[in-house]
Amino acid sequence: MTNEPAMSADPFQGERPRHTHFHERQAALNVREAWSAWNGFRFADYYYDPEYEYFCIRNFCGTYDICPMQKYYISGPDAAAMLDRMVTRDIKKLNVNRVTYCVWCTDEGRIVDDGTIFRISEDTYMLTCGSPSVSWLRKSAIGFDDVTITDMTDEIAGLSLQGPTSYSTLKAMGLEGLETLKPFGIMRFPFNGVELMVSRTGFTGDLGYELWIDPSQALAMWDALYAAGKDFGIHPYGETATDMARLEAGFIMPDMELSESLKTIHFEHDQSPFELNLGWLVDFKKPHFNGRRALLEERERGPKWTLVKLDIPGNKVAEGAIMYDTEDCDNEIGYVTSAMWSPSVKANIALAMIKTPALKGDIWAEIYYQKELRYYRKMALCEVKDKPFWMPARTRQTPPEVYS
Amino acid sequence: MSNYDTIVIGAGHNGLICAAYLAKKGQRVLVLEAAPAAGGLAMTREFHPGFKASVAHSLNQFSGKIAADLNLKAHGFDSSGQAMPTVALDPDGKHISISDDALQGAGEDDAASYVKYRKAMKTFARALEPFWAKTMPGVGNNSLGELMTFGQLGLRLRMMGKEDMLEFLRVATLPMRDLMDEYFSDKRLQAALSWDGLVGAKLAPRSPNSAVFGLLYRMIGEHQGMHSIPASGISGLVNALQGAATAAGAEVRFDAPVKRVVVDADENGLRASGVELVGGETVTASRVVSSADPQTTFLKLVGARHLEIEFANRIQRLRCEGYVAKLHLALKGAPNIPGLSDANARMIIADQPDALEFAFDDAKYGGYSQNPVMEVLLPSLTDSSLAPAGQHVLSANIMYVPANLKGGWTDEARADLSRRVMDTLEAHIPGLADLVVHAELLTPADLESQFRVTGGHWHHTEFAVDQMLMMRPTYEAGQYATPLPGLYLCGAGSHPGGGLMGGPGHNAAHEILK
Ligand SMILES: Cc1cc2nc3c(=O)[nH]c(=O)nc-3n(C[C@H](O)[C@H](O)[C@H](O)COP(=O)(O)OP(=O)(O)OC[C@H]3O[C@@H](n4cnc5c(N)ncnc54)[C@H](O)[C@@H]3O)c2cc1C
């Protein structure tokens, strides 16, 4: 015998993307093998066709794997105070079994990350966010004696179910009482001997839920859900369809609209809540929260940039467009962060960062587009929209409409 | 209405100086001190019946401006004491005596070099001198005045002349060892001259960073780095400061430990509005000025939850481990030091730079040296009130004794260190052990618990390039004001730093009054 590793050992062990709790089912449905990765997990860009998956979200329902999303339990008598100091919203107002969307900032008032906080019991909160945050959470907990931070990312299987038939699907699965669940509420149901936690949350701007369960029952839940959803058009969707749906809803996306401050190198290439039009998340009635001083100053002087929703004439998608104050491109005033042709709104839409003073004048997009490999350029006068491009009444309707 | 304009936490020399300046301007000032007397680390206390000592035992950098501003002479402090020579002590009696302008007992070459060395160091020290007594500008968005401080520093350096300026920039962050090798060949002399660049910091002769700065910082007193004990003793200075503060109208309360800074919270944000004493009493004030060290102030008295996250983390990461222990001996007679005509000197026991280096190596790994290095004084030779007639006090700073000793400061560890220190002393001062009536050893851990200074640190927090000037103790608290409105710092943890100098107390008062 030698000490050399057996030939069968994987030399890249630990390097390969891990499988989420739903991987087995999703792999079987990933006809295109269109995988990418998120937080070290194998993750679908799309399964069959991104547009088709998008239409499932808007017309039927779809599932989206949120296992790779980071989940932390913040618990103990000081949990509320610790979170309240960390985020810009008033966490003391969050009731048990309610969820809230938050951002948290550096001392300079630049966004570290955004995420949702679930108050799952009197003294326990679940924070979910896109990127690993344990070091920031630990730093934030200094000075709070009675708080425990537990990384639950591997301990909870999360699946998002979004679209108009999501409610009907869950009812068909036997979730009694779900009709009373309001947006941003949490309910619990018994499932196969464990607890299935359902929150009326999501990232699509549509009627939708997120399901949270012990990993041991993840596949059983998937099977029950897909059996119930068979007649309601259930289908898995990936990152591409998510990105379309969230853009229509006007939600910001990490690495598109948001450059996490702690990872940003260039000066002020990160963002403040005001710059991302998230001033409504900043509660100055709170005496203290991280970044308060800097944000107060910014509110006084006005943000340097402002994220706007744009309706752009024509059908040429303004991806990567640079914005100007005149058709002749006299002064550069900003850039597009996300753009698409919206099938639901039937409009050419975009999110763009514009230098705040320039919002008083015209906003022209310089759009480059391609026809069979050849590039063309056009200028388009954009219209700023205040409301989300897409936010149907069904998103908030309680009880939701039943389909049969 | 608040009870006071300003509450000063701590009646160390910096707290008293700050209080005196504020009271002189008509503020209603209350100084709250946990200990039963004033002085902080410079407090003179009885360590054995009839025998007294102060942890800080000599002066080398006390500000002449402060002495004049506060008219300390009228309060009994006479700074015009004679400077003591520094003596590189040799067990065989071949000591080297170092005075302001000459060496005795060293070789001719070293003696000639010493003149050049002192000239260069004095030139550099003079160029830096104005900055120790000034608020350092913050970085970014500077006012004209702050920009002028920057400009002035440039100008001062430039005025030295091109050659001296370039030389200053070259040596500024040099290890002490390299500086010594450039000038001197005698190892014992090198070790003795290195001492003031190293003591109180986590630095050995071969460590780059701030040793030269530390040395120049210590050269700002009237004897340009030479040490002295005032005729009225260290207690004379402390009493004069307390007298000046009370004469100006400040109240000083002893046995009044502050439990926490009271932080008011409303829609205008947070604000320090007073303090709560350990006994439960609350006193309000328009502002609170703390001379406690930065970690004590921010993490214990204010609480990290009232600060911002990154700021609180910087405070928590401040380097505050003390490396100097203190020995006080009550002696029934005057010790005889062979070969030394006048024992009223600052004696350095370290036979070569490597003795310092290796002692530091031990401390670095959580131990202390088999061969401790130290600075020894007989303060009762100057200040006769410290011991009964004919009897004496020996006071020693023992370097490279870590606050966080591996295994902790057990009775065995303390006894073992005491034995080693006594053996070393006995080797240089034969017969000393027979004179000892009582010995008090204060490890940095003891200094922490008895004097309320984190890590028992000489400067409250490391005096090093990353924690100096506008970075002291850390940015956003480098101009005495802190991120918590109403709270200021005025202790050794602020610019310029520790030592009996008074800069932090003086500068903080200036900031508050501006
Ligand atoms: C071993 C050693 C030897 C030294 N030798 C010398 C020397 O020979 N010469 C020299 O110039 N320097 C020397 N120093 C350095 C010098 O003693 C200090 O840098 C200086 O005394 C610091 O002064 P300060 O006023 O800033 O703080 P301190 O002297 O530490 O005073 C702070 C005061 O605040 C009080 N306080 C803290 N917390 C509270 C609270 N919660 N409530 C109420 N009061 C509180 C403390 O009791 C203390 O009185 C030495 C230091 C050490 C550790």
* CATH topology (fold) name of the largest domain in chain A: Gyrase A, domain 2
Q: What is CATH's topology name of one domain in chain B?
A: FAD/NAD(P)-binding domain
Structural class of chain B: alpha/beta
Query: End-to-end span of chain A in angstroms?
Result: 66 Å
CATH architecture of one domain in chain B: 3-Layer(bba) Sandwich
Main β-sheet description of chain A: 7 strands, antiparallel
- Biggest sheet strand order of chain A reads 19-18-15-16-17-14-20
Q: Which term fits the overall shape of chain B?
A: globular
Low-confidence stretches of chain A: none
Determine and state the CATH class of one domain in chain B: Alpha Beta
User: Main sheet of chain B, how many strands, which sense, barrel?
Assistant: 8 strands, mixed
Tell me the layout of helices and strands.
The complex is a heterodimer of chains A (404) and B (514).
Chain A: H1 23-29, E1 34-38, E2 41-46, H2 50-59, E3 61-65, E4 70-75, H3 79-86, E5 98-105, E6 111-121, E7 124-129, H4 134-141, E8 148-151, E9 157-162, H5 166-172, E10 186-191, E11 194-199, E12 208-213, H6 218-229, E13 234-236, H7 239-249, H8 292-301, E14 305-312, E15 322-324, E16 332-342, E17 347-355, E18 364-371, E19 374-381, E20 383-385
Parallel strand pairs in A: 3-13
Antiparallel strand pairs in A: 1-2, 3-9, 4-7, 4-8, 5-6, 6-7, 9-12, 10-11, 11-12, 14-17, 14-20, 15-16, 15-18, 16-17, 18-19
Chain B: E1 4-9, H1 13-24, E2 29-32, E3 44-48, E4 51-54, H2 64-69, E5 83-84, E6 86-88, E7 96-98, E8 103-104, H3 108-132, H4 144-159, H5 162-171, H6 176-183, H7 187-198, H8 211-217, E9 227-228, H9 233-247, E10 251-253, E11 258-266, E12 269-277, E13 282-290, H10 294-302, H11 309-316, E14 324-331, E15 346-349, H12 353-364, E16 373-377, E17 392-399, H13 411-428, H14 432-435, E18 436-442, H15 444-451, E19 487-489, H16 503-513
Parallel strand pairs in B: 1-2, 1-13, 2-10, 6-15, 13-19
Antiparallel strand pairs in B: 3-4, 5-9, 6-7, 7-8, 11-12, 12-13, 14-17, 14-18, 15-16, 16-17
